[in-house]
Amino acid sequence: MDIIINETSVKFSETTINKARKVLKERLSGYAIPEVLVGLEEQYGEFFDLLNRNVSLGESNTCILIGPTGCGKTALLKKALKSLEEIHGDDFICVYINGLFHTSDILVRQQIARQLGQQIKGLKSDGDAFDLLKSGTTGNKSILLIIYNFDMFAKNCSQPFVYNIFNIATSKNCPISVIGITRNVNVFNELAQNILSRNSHCHIDIDRLENIDLFTEVAKLALNLNEDAIEDGEYCKLFNEKIEEMFNQESFKTIIHQIFNTSTDFIRYFYKISFAPVDKLSINSPFLLLDDLKQSVMDVSVNIERVLIGLTQTQLWLLLAINSLFFRGWTVFNFVMVYEEYTNYMKAYVRKSGSNFRMKICKEYLALIEFEFLQSRKLIQQINEGKFQQKYNMVKSLLLPEQIIEAVTKNPHCSSAMKDWATRGLVD
């Protein structure tokens, strides 16, 4: 029998509740840097040691983080960078590249120059910035070149350019670490043999949590409060005690097991169902309620299923394109990216099917209307302030990959082309 854990005669200030809500929302949305990396202690130690040697000793190196979506690659990187900043302050510079967005030598070079130009004064041109990255001087700060979707970077950029990027990390004049992040376990097949033989590199494999106990620990840490952030020791103590009691209840354990056993990205799914109950925290209800979490699980599953059943073919095509971007590691996107992913798949499918096969591609302005419909139904959510044209505004998906896949594969009206993309995931 479940225990009622939300009743309290103690009143807490509105400031305290607002701080708690803000801290938990930042954590559940992925903006906060995790204090503990459950199950990744060994990988974190190895990775941090590599970066620390670069900053403290000027030792250049290369490292590739490899693991499936939701395993903790980005969290591990963010925590390592935060620890470096606490120790070394601003003695290092981070330059960020994304292989999905920076798809040519020129775009990568310009992005490197732009980011260095923002942090190092006196650069007159893109060429000056890239030359600085290549040659360096004894007075340079350490540079961490972080490449998200490294497999796409290696595929889209020319091999000589990729070779030069790796070669920079062997320069004694320029303390630089090249850090690649990818979900593609075959990433080294994208690299030319001379790159692999000429440059030494390490790779760190990161897997999803292997058992329910570790997942439970992560879930509990996500909902616990830290006294340093809230500045109300009594509230934090009571709040965490309530969370502990809730995790010990059988009905909540059932929710945890269901998420772990049915979702391929169980951590993000748990964060998603926890968001609405956290948003309800108030002076009159200062603790998380088990009934709210149960209702959130039902709302997510029932409402989404009902909406997905009524979607048009074009809307489902757009969701499949969003899924394809997600499988590449691209969790934030805009309509232009989604439409390009959709048209690229359609063209690739036609080429694969033969010259006599024809498929009708939805016109861009019509697809944009369908995209806006998905947003109105809360299947995708805008994350910026909307200062740009609608098609350029950045959004994120509120669906899990398996929900999109199931909506397509179980729909008798979906074509074999759609079902093929749903089960295969990516555009070649």
TrEMBL record:
GO terms for cellular component: nuclear origin of replication recognition complex. GO terms for molecular function: ATP hydrolysis activity; DNA replication origin binding. It is found in: Nucleus. It holds the Pfam family ORC4_C. Residues 59-210 form the AAA+ ATPase domain. The chain crosses the membrane at residues 316-339. InterPro entries: AAA+_ATPase, AAA_22, ORC4, ORC4_C, P-loop_NTPase. GO terms for biological process: DNA replication initiation. Keywords: DNA replication, DNA-binding, Membrane, Nucleus, Transmembrane, Transmembrane helix. The keyword Aminoacyl-tRNA synthetase does not apply. The keyword Transmembrane applies. Belongs to the ORC4 family. This is Origin recognition complex subunit 4. It comes from Diversispora epigaea.
